[in-house]
Amino acid sequence: MRYFNYVTPDEEKALFYLPPTSFYNHSDKEILASSVGAALYMPATRPTIAEDIAFGKIEGLVSAIFDLEDAVGENEVHAAEESLIHQMNKLAAFIELGILRSDNLPLLFVRVRSANQLNYLIERLEENVAILTGFVFPKFTAENGEAYFQILENYNDEKSSASPTLYGLPILESEAIIYKEFRYPSLQAIKEIVEKYKDLVLNVRIGATDFSSLYGLRRSPDMTIYDIAPIRDCVSDIINVFGRMDSSYVISGPVWEYFPRKGLIREVIMDKENGLIGKTIIHPTHIKPVQSLYTVTHEEYVDATSIIAKNNGDYGVIKSQYGNKMNEIKPHLNWARRIMLRSQIYGVLHEQQQYFGLLSIQDRAYV
Which among 360, 349, 356, 290 is positioned nearest to 15, based on CA atoms? Predict the structure, then answer.
């Protein structure tokens, strides 16, 4: 699997200074954590999951989350579980028959409702659980977090060495996090759990819709989550706790819940500026805009390579190759390393190219 595999060879040559590289659900964790990108939510009741993936019906799809929680009514839970197991079995059959190549399999995740459901699904899926990259843990707290990761740890300890690691993706979206008087103790308690299971934590996700509901708020389609003051402050504190470079986690941006893309593009730009990588989305037309905005510009790339190359003690500050800024070696080194990682996954645009080049291709695809 790789980003922008819908781009023709001629378009790729014209757009990219360095094209994206391939990755799989057994790739290095550092690569996978930043590769989740535009994660498309699908209700687990969707009857065409296997066909949509096997036959490439959702162009550009790189990661998907099959939802057993908010997208499923209380009276649908059992049917949704059975539907999901059936779809995973079909996907496994498509791979075995050669209809779907395993290296073309998107990163697949299941959002569960509880630790008990997680344990049940792992047992029911049996060897087909290896199709998945991980499970998403909603409303993750210090009270329920240990149970999720203990189950995941037990699975990984007992699995075949040939099977990929199964990761956990906690979603921070509870009252104890958004309510300011409880926030820092709650975040610190959660961090203690994820530090304990750090090798199994793929990324930390932010559930801004649940946060907003506690105040009766909802951002409009032309605004961003950063325009909602209590949510912006909470996101800032989550980044403060989990985004520090001494124990940095990949933090994913909040879900975009509208079909229009104007606000989405503004919000992804703000996500990037705040160090977030990836976004949960609810419609296929959101995939390509999000992916396009995570590509690395040529200017970013040459700045990053220059900073890393000169990190030998001989330099303190250097003029950028573009001649429009000063690059300070030590203060900008962590930024440069993040840019280099993103460049592997999302590619580097040519000097005269910007995100709009890729966006024009995505617009053409939906004419």
Answer: 349
Task: Provide the whole-model pTM.
Answer: 0.93
**How confident is residue 73, by pLDDT bands cut at 50, 70 and 90?**
confident
CB 107 within 8 A of CB 1: yes
Structure-token match 């820092």, residue found: 184
Check pLDDT > 70 for residue 354: yes
Rounded Cα gap, residues 351 and 197, in angstroms: 41
Reduce the DSSP state of residue 209 to 3 states and report it: helix
Strand partners, 253: 279
Residue 129 corresponds to which amino acid? V
Q: What is the pLDDT of residue 365?
A: 46
Q: What is the 3-state secondary structure (H, E, C) of 5-17?
A: CCCCHHHHHHHEE
Whether residue 49 contacts residue 66, with contact meaning beta carbons closer than 8 Å, is answered with: yes
Between CA 31 and CA 245 the distance in angstroms is: 17
In Å, how far are 270, 303, 314, 319 from 326, measured between CA atoms?
A: 23, 10, 16, 5
Rounded Cα distance, 162 and 170, in Å: 25
Q: Which of 294, 282, 304, 231 is nearest to 67 (CA)?
A: 282
